[in-house]
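hey
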């Protein structure tokens, strides 16, 4: 074998070894790159979710306040309805007298005697 053939074989072998090592390095770094990308995506998702969590808590508080207000308003409507029914019944009663109706209307707080139910 001539020295040219030997040199070509050595260079080819070295090139193949370097190429194989480079390929292995790329494969190894792909896992690292994927892991880093997953970390970046996770951190970004958590950063984006935090304001949404805060907003959800704010909205939950608003919903509770709104529900409480609705219950209070419903109770008021029930009380006023009961008052109007009593007044109507008194007005339509066959023995109704204007003075007695005035005393009833002025003496009774509006919404008093709510119906429970």
């Amino acid at each position: 074998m001539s020295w040219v053939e030997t040199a070509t074989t050595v260079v080819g072998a070295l090139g193949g070894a370097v190429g194989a090592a480079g390929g292995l390095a790329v494969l190894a770094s792909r896992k690292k790159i994927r892991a880093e990308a997953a970390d970046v995506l996770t951190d970004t998702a958590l950063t984006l979710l935090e304001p949404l969590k805060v907003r959800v808590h704010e909205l939950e508080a608003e919903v509770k306040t709104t529900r409480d207000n609705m219950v209070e308003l419903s109770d008021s409507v029930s009380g006023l309805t009961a008052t109007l029914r009593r007044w109507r019944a008194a007005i339509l009663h066959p023995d109704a007298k204007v003075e007695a109706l005035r005393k009833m209307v002025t003496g009774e707080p509006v919404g008093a005697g709510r119906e429970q139910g």
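The helical segments are 3-92, 98-107. The first helix runs from residue 3 to 92.
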